[in-house]
Amino acid sequence: MASRSTKTDVLGSGSVNYGHGSIMRGGLASKPALDNGPANATRGLMVGGEPGKRTGVSSSSDPEELKKMGNDNYRKGHFAEALSLYDKAIAISPGNAAYHFNRAAALMGLKRLVEAARECEEAIRLDPGYVRAHHRLGSLLLSLGQTENARKHICFPGHQPDPLEVQKLQSVEKHLSKAEALLKLYQLDDAISALLNIPKYASATSSRSQSKIFGMLFEAYPYFVRTQIELAWGRFDSALTAIEKAGEVDPRNVEISILLNNVRLVGRARARGNDLFKSERFTEACSAYGEGLRLDPSNSVLYCNRAACWFKLGQWQWSVDDCNQALRIQPNYTKALLRRAASNSKVELVSLIAYFKMRDIFALEVRFEF
Fold this sequence. Notes:
Serine Threonine Protein Phosphatase 5, Tetratricopeptide repeat, two-stranded antiparallel sheet, elongated, TPR-like_helical_dom_sf, TPR repeat, TPR repeat-containing thioredoxin TTL1, TTL1-4
């Protein structure tokens, strides 16, 4: 090794901080630990070449020798060369889980986190009880925002989880739970703030653009959430703008594509209902607003607009019911409050008229009994 150190630094046991490095005694803490197989190699190991220089590509047909050469390159920060050597070892012995585990480390060094996660999955497929691979995969999945899957591997049954990784996982889950609770209360700005403040636990080699949350690119998710709230509040243009931005960030996401289509369909239903209402075709307008509500049952404006149709048709109790739905979503919706009051007054008037009619009929019946 380089002359700056005469001591040999031993690779960590792999029991802590996978994905963020566990090399002990001052050795490049940002690198994840390698699997050294039967012989726990030291940083002083040299296979070919001079200290400090890249180990050249070998024609060796011994996969263990190739792995050791890959480890040597990896420790020097020569990740591409290490990856090439691990590839050669895997080509000779594809069923060796440790080779895939080390290949994942090289991929992490090259900032190819998604590929690294897949390589860990392959190591686990070959050796389901490979604890270090489970822990590293959990760390990678947490970096990529896949908290549910991360928990399965960080808290691998029958083995003590890394406390630091558990702490990170719990922190992310706490922020997600807070965001979900705020969304249910329709507190848009606070929910978005909670999402944006989710701690980013990607390794030093991670890029934000790779991170995902609920299967969606992280930066697209706030737009996705904002779309649903804007739509619920009846701000159709803002909803369309938000979902189009989400689509620009994550154009291949199916959920975003479906919501974009729904926003457009709901907007058309609202516009058609408005046109029919202006033409005093209230029954048809009710149907148009109902079609929009079928696609988006949390849209306060569509409920309020349909309530106006029911009012015009003399269906005042139905108007009250739709106003109540609108106010459940948006409690301070002034138009819905006024419309409900007007509808209630009609319902009460009808009830009062019915009462007087029944009283007169009863009085008449009593008179005839005598």
